[in-house]
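Can you please make up a whole protein chain along with its backbone structure tokens because I've never seen that pairing?
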Amino acid sequence: MSFNIDNLNEQKKQELIKTVSGGRRPHAVLVDGGTESEREEIAYLLAKIYVCENATDSEPCSSCSSCRKADEKIHPDIVKITKQSDKKYYSKTSDVKPIVENAYQTPNEAKVRVLIISEMQLMKVDSQNVLLKILEEPPTYTAFILTAESANNVIGTVLSRVSRFRIGESNEELVFSEKTLGVVEKIAVALSSNYEFDIIAAAAPLDGNKQLTVDVLKALSVFFRDALVIKNGGKALIKDLENQAESVAYSFSQEALLTRYEAVNELLKLTQGNPNYTLLAAQLCAKLK
């Protein structure tokens, strides 16, 4: 397969240009959205640009030895990393720590070694925190390309250290109803209260309401992601709750925010089954305080 910009639709072309134009080669890029095959195609195209011997502003030459090897997926400096097939998630010990060690290997042929870390939604928060250390201070000769179903699967501290390549309409997943945002706003205010009842009162509309509970959990996931990003100097995705996210960001430690972010996403996974939504709302209140 040949990984070329001409294979992309107009939206993807614009995202590519935004990511690498002007000779930019970010040390880390997150490719999120679309299908797994689309994410992999973009990841390999970006990697091809990084190793190309004659790359232009935002395109590989597709004729040099490095480009030909990239197309055949045999370039020694493009390394795809996936979780072990017999595990549900990446293990921070057996999967992620070797990634950090791999990052310090010098390139064989190109000027940069590209590590493609696939499907970050399969990497839990503690594993992402292990990866975070190398993303914060990477070797100058190493680049990272991460892929994920959604940016919501990536912790805020990691997001703040990557450039994003968004497949599809980037704002689509952030359209929340006024009612959903209203509940999240009340929960955000209650987080700073000394009274546990305030959280219970804020989450009361969720009691037994399946759709509202799912929507609020999705919005809370983004909200806590926003708080983490703001704490690390980034910008919020939910503009209507930006002030609330900023307030929460500076009221809680990074560890406390990460704990709540992970708890919300664990509850969100439970909605894929057939949980008792009254109990789910109660669990949410307990985990947020």
Notes: Confidence is low (pLDDT under 50) at residues 169-173. The radius of gyration is 20 Å. The first helix runs from residue 10 to 20. The beta strands are 28-32, 78-81, 113-117, 142-148, 163-166.
